[in-house]
Amino acid sequence: MFDKIWKMTACDVVDDLKKNKLSPEEVLDDLLLRYRQVNHLTNSMPTLCIERALTKLKRTNFSKKKPLFGLPIPIKDSSLVSGVRSTIGSLAFKDFIPQSSDFIVKKIQDSGGIVYGKTNTPEFEAGASTFNDVFGITRNPWNLEKSVSGSSGGAASSVATGMAFLAQGSDFACSIRYPSSFCGVVGLRPTPGLIPYGPNNLPSQTLSVMGPIARNTQDVGLGLDAMSGFNILDPLTFPNVKKNYRRAAEEPLKMTNRIAFSFDLGLGPISNNVKKIFLNALNKLEKNKIDFIEESPDLIGASETFKTLRAYQFYALWNKVLKNNRDNLKPEVVWNIEQGSKISSSKLFEAEKKRYIMRKGMISFLDKYEFFVTPTSPVEPFQAEERYVKEINNINLESYIDWLFLGFSISLVGCPSISIPCGFTKDNLPIGMQIISKPYNEYRLLSFASWIEKNLDFSLIEPISPK
After folding, report:
1. pLDDT for 237-267, tens place per residue?
2. Nearest 5°: CA angle at 80, between 74 and 81?
């Protein structure tokens, strides 16, 4: 059965593990075989920890009540795994081996997952293009000359190529959704607090969240079952977490006949290719008697608000690293930390006040339309060597953050959003659709996203091979 397991869905593998049709060792061996076939082309997973994984397998008695039951899971290199090199994509941490794991790693292991590798990420997750001076560039499996976006680019690429059934990612501005769009897979940014985050020096922050990336919505639901839960050290989590997200995705439902949409949220330019493909997807869904209404909540000011809060968060988390390792940091990271050092308390207050107003408006908007769709990214995959998008449709962008507006505006208001494939360019590059709903509405969001996925018929079931 070797060289076939990696083509299966995560749900099917877990079901076969629970029925003893597969062993965790067989599954891990098959993933390693696939890794040797493709990772040297894409550079998605620069670090393996196979001995650690095998030790965990020998010492663990898996319970059928656990959602993952021995499924191998890679961890993003910005999340710490005890005893495993964790660089955060930075020369400042190139030899760092932590003694304890982050909350998300412990939660995945408690859910029956086996950590076997670390996926590539840009330095400190900054810039939404996956490259760093420790491991280099991660390349898009649809076209090795193209970017995987970021910052969970290694995770999305690992899933798309079949080196992983399901991967852990994190999302600050767009870091699960954009890579999922670029790699033709599915990624969920959940409501802050649904999945434990930390430990870090900002335990009550809500911009950064953890989430699953997989090849279809059912596997994302499985991942959310495994990752969600309570951690007493994370003040945003709570004990009574609703589960059965896999079941929600396995029951695709139309939910509504009226959906709001926007091409650009009124915030910036999008490429003509993205607009055309997104519109084609809406036209296809309209045949199922859905009315799409072009309407958007007021998110004007999202860019300035996000830049302020982002800079503050970068300064709070990384200012000591800047003092001690300035020469080892990329200029975009230095800029972000230094911007944070200049923020006054009054400016931070104004940003939080504006954020509250936008959140209130978005939730009122989603009372009217339960779901809201946009393109996931304003551009198709670009050249891998480009550090970030500098212009869209001949419109110059001011900073390396500006092209992320379709992502960070939703992060600001704290709403869950999922990216699913909605079409391809003439060059066979995937384009994603972002579906947004109210906080803590993940169950219905997954069911509805599964219905859209089924009707668009672009989900990546069998992984692709890099060309």
Report:
1. 988 877 899 999 999 999 999 999 999 999 9
2. 60
C-alpha count within 13 angstroms, C-beta hemisphere, residue 57 = 21
- What span, in angstroms and rounded, lies between the C-alpha atoms of 176 and 132? 18
Contact 296, 263 (CB under 8 A): no
DSSP assignment of 243-268, as one string?
A: --HHHHHTS-----SEEEE-SSTTTS
Summary count for the chain: helices (H), strands (E): 14, 17
Specify the DSSP class assigned to residue 19. Answer: T
Task: Look up residue 54 and give its DSSP letter.
Answer: H
CA distance 181 to 368: 27
DSSP 78: T
Token pair 């579906």 in the structure block, residue: 435
Question: Do the beta carbons of residue 153 and residue 196 sit within 8 Å?
Answer: no
H/E element, 354: helix 345-368
Q: Report strand pairing: 430-436 vs 258-261.
A: unpaired
Q: β-strands 186-189, 258-261: how paired? A: unpaired
Backbone dihedral angles phi then psi of residue 142, each to the nearest 5 degrees: -75, -25
> What CA dihedral angle connects 1, 23, 118 and 219, to 10 degrees?
80
pLDDT tens per residue across span 54-68 = 999 999 888 899 999
Reduce the DSSP state of residue 98 to 3 states and report it.
coil
- Span 199-224, mean pLDDT? 97
Peptide bond into 199 cis (omega under 30): yes
Please, what is the Cα angle at 122 between 53 and 336, to 5 degrees?
A: 135
**pTM greater than 0.85 (yes/no):** yes
Task: Using alpha carbons, select from 443, 447, 445 the residue that is nearest to residue 434.
Answer: 445
Give the 3-state secondary structure of residue 114. strand
Q: Provide, for the chain, the percentages of residues in helix, strand and coil under a 3-state DSSP scheme, each rounded to the nearest 5.
A: 40, 15, 45
Q: Quote the Cα angle for 121-122-124, to 5°.
A: 100
CA 378 to centroid of chain Cα atoms:
16
138-171 residue pLDDT tens: 999 999 999 999 999 999 999 999 999 999 999 9
Q: For residue 431, which of 282, 275, 293 has the smallest C-alpha distance?
A: 275
* Range 366-381 average pLDDT: 98
Residue 183: CB atoms within 10 A of its CB come to: 37
Residue 327 backbone dihedrals phi, psi, to 5 degrees: -70, -15
- Residues in a beta bridge with 432: 421
Q: Pick from 142, 121, 162: which is nearest to 27 by CA?
A: 162
Element spanning 285, H or E = helix 272-286
Residue 95 gets which letter from DSSP? T
